[in-house]
Design goal:
The chain is an all-beta fold. The chain has a single domain, classed as Roll (SH3 type barrels). A hairpin with a 3-residue loop joins β3 and β4. The radius of gyration is 10 Å and the shape is globular. It starts with 9 loop residues before the first strand and ends with a strand.
């Protein structure tokens, strides 16, 4: 599922609800950079964490 994430898409981290909404900045070779409301810019290892895409939020 992470391979479908594109810059601009909104996501949530499955284990860190306190980070709030995140906007995908880049998705390169399984490394997903996301700017979260309450955690700032975080680089996610897409092979270990499956982000939850949001539609219409």
């Amino acid at each position: 599922m992470n391979s479908l994430l594109e810059p601009g898409m909104m996501v949530r981290h499955p284990d860190r609800a306190d980070w709030g909404l995140g906007q995908v900045q880049s998705n390169i070779s399984g490394r997903i950079t996301v700017n979260f409301e309450h955690a700032g810019k975080v680089v996610i290892d897409g092979t270990r964490i499956t982000l939850i895409p949001l539609f219409g939020e």
